[in-house]
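thought: user wants a sequence for this fold. calling inverse folding tool.
action: design(structure=
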């Protein structure tokens, strides 16, 4: 295949207090026309820095030390600003990680895409532009959303809009920087399926930057593994995932749980990427179990070991073959086992509208976000709440924590009914429920040192403490006392999340609400946080409501799982039973969408209905989307709750029939 873009010996440095520091060193790879190349590695490995150079972007305080980026024979690093502007969007396009910040909140979707097309293509008239917009929306599986604003779309829909904008001019190369981070599993597969279809239809090449190797397996032809600014291995995607040769590649792959192999503690990697401790030789040496003394001083560069397979390791052929995937396991029973009812939600119905407001204004029923939720959580138990984006998971968490007053129903903690709002709850009740947010960047005060961040809740609740208590709290989450004097910006993403967990644990809560706390972390850090949560459960009998879209982590960590769809609980079951026999059709759809480390023939399910009949109190929430829909009952009447030995399902199909279908 003909090379479209070639990165040749690229080295990039950033300015710092001690002068210029190399963050990318000697990176070389190429991408052929129509090929998908994946770039993977932990946070801080230099993936995004390389990706942005393929668009000719240069951040302030950085410079290219050596190298070229040749696009169709032209060095992008030598082009002036007007020449780069002419290429971007027309021949090289970009899909960002966060569509919320990429789309202008004050412009309608159609206007934003029109503006981009007009900058690069001349269409005959407004009719031709309207036709092109409708074509683009259809291409990415959206209705005509041109008149809507970004905030009126879900995260998955916003990401589809950014893809539509990126491919509007049929580019030759599409650069994607973590385009599915934070999206639920079905939306992730829809996006990947969409990109594969666009690649076949338009013939564009792709650079796909991600830390999700299981998802990358579904789209990439070849993969490059980066560590500390260097490429340490390149190979075909299937070859790399089945036969990794570099110790770092092996550890990275071993850190990935799947719903078939979700084993606690199989992290495969020790330590963290720390650039201030890099030796002159192999950068991975401080974390490598296979390292010898020569690794510290002898720099390693990529060498071909097989057709299309290169590795930067002097000992690659001396290492034992990679171990097979570990046997399925989960949190061991022990001190943290359930010991009595702690939290009880009964007939909980939630809405963000004021009672009577929507009904008065529109003459209809309130727009319900979650309806008749029943969940019980025992002391020392981990219950996972799973479902697609918009299903109401975080809404339920907000109600439990007192940030959203229910329309009806009750929330009881240790047998005592909680007041609906924070202001009416006692200080003791507030202490017993602690919330850990998805994004530690937003939940930690950037102007306060870690010491002050940890002291604040202790002062608020009037708890006596000393320096040893703060140090012990950090040690319990795997950090040392030196972190007390650091600011959040001096910590990695995983370290910031550990500080957030330590802050929540300091006041000795009975319940932790963990709201997507792993979604923005790379796989090796995720593995360490999961291990930490499991140890907290075992040592302190802390109960957790664990909200996640990562079903592999859920299988690894949770005792029970509650499956939520458009505000309705579809199934509640013991974890092992749910994953081995997903009786409810929606549960089965979710598990089918979870990617493995091998490419599969998964066909994305249709997206959720914009307005569920169940939201209006009629029919099943899954009606119109369910692969087993039987007759008009599904759309006309709410399905009954069928109690099981370890939970319940909500479905018109009798449980015996569902059990038989599950095998």
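)
observation: tool returned 663 residues.
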């Amino acid at each position: 295949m003909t090379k479209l873009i070639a990165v040749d010996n690229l080295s990039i440095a950033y300015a710092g207090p001690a002068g210029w520091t190399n963050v990318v060193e000697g990176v070389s790879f190429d991408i052929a026309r129509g090929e998908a190349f994946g770039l993977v590695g932990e946070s801080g490995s230099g993936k995004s820095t390389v990706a942005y150079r393929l668009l000719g972007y240069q951040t302030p305080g950085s410079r290219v030390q050596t190298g070229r980026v040749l696009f169709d024979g032209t060095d992008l690093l030598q082009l002036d600003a007007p020449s780069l502007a002419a290429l971007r969007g027309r021949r090289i396009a970009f899909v960002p990680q966060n569509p919320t910040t990429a789309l202008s909140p004050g412009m309608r979707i159609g206007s934003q895409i029109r503006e981009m097309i007009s900058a690069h293509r001349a269409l005959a008239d407004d009719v031709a532009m309207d036709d092109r917009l409708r074509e683009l929306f259809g291409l990415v599986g959206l209705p005509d959303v041109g008149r809507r604003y970004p905030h009126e779309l879900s995260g998955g829909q916003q990401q589809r809009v950014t893809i539509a904008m990126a491919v509007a001019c049929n580019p030759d190369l599409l650069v994607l920087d973590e385009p599915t981070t934070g999206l639920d599993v079905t939306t992730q597969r829809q996006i990947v399926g969409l990109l594969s279809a666009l690649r076949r239809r338009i013939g564009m090449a792709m650079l796909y930057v991600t830390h999700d190797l299981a998802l990358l397996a579904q789209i990439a032809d070849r993969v490059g593994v980066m560590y500390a600014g260097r490429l340490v291995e390149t190979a075909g995607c299937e070859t790399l995932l089945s036969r990794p040769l570099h110790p770092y590649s092996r550890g990275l792959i071993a850190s990935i749980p799947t719903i078939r192999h979700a084993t606690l503690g199989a992290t495969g990697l020790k330590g963290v990427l720390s650039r201030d401790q890099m030796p002159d030789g192999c950068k991975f040496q401080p974390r490598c179990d296979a390292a010898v003394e020569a690794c510290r001083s002898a720099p390693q560069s990529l060498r071909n070991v097989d057709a299309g397979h290169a590795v930067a390791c002097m000992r690659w052929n001396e290492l034992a073959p990679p171990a097979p995937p570990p046997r399925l396991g989960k949190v061991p029973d022990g001190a943290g086992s359930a010991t009595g009812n702690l939290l009880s939600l009964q007939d909980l119905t939630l809405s963000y509208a004021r009672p009577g407001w929507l009904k008065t204004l529109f003459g209809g029923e309130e727009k319900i976000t979650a309806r008749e939720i029943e969940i019980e959580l025992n002391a020392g138990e981990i219950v996972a709440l799973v479902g697609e984006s918009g299903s109401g998971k975080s809404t339920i968490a907000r109600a439990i924590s007192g940030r959203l007053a229910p329309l009806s129903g009750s929330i009881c903690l240790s047998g005592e009914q909680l007041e609906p709002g924070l202001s009416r709850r006692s200080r003791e009740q507030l202490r017993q429920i602690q919330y850990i947010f998805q994004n530690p960047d937003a939940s930690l005060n950037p102007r306060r040192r870690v010491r002050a961040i940890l002291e604040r809740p202790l002062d608020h609740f009037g708890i006596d403490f000393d320096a040893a208590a703060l140090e012990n709290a950090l040690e319990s989450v795997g950090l040392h006392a030196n972190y007390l004097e650091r600011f959040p910006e001096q910590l990695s993403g995983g370290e910031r999340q550990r500080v957030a967990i330590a802050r929540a644990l300091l006041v000795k809560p009975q319940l932790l609400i963990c709201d997507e706390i792993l979604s923005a972390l790379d796989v090796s850090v995720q593995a360490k946080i999961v291990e930490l949560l499991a140890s907290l459960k075992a040592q302190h009998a802390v109960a957790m409501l664990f909200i996640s879209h990562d079903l592999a982590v859920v299988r690894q960590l949770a005792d029970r799982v509650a499956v939520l769809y458009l505000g309705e609980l579809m199934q509640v079951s013991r974890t092992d039973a749910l994953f081995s026999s997903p009786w409810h059709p929606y549960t089965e759809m979710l598990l089918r969408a979870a990617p493995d480390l091998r490419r599969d023939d998964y066909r994305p399910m249709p997206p959720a209905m914009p307005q569920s009949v169940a939201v209006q109190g009629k029919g099943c929430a899954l009606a119109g989307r369910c692969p087993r829909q039987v007759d008009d009952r599904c759309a006309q009447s709410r399905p009954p709750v069928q109690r099981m030995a370890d939970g319940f399902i909500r479905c018109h199909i009798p449980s015996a029939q569902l059990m038989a279908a599950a095998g």
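thought: summarizing for user.
answer: Here is the designed sequence. Confidence is low (pLDDT under 50) at residues 331-337, 358-365, 610-615.
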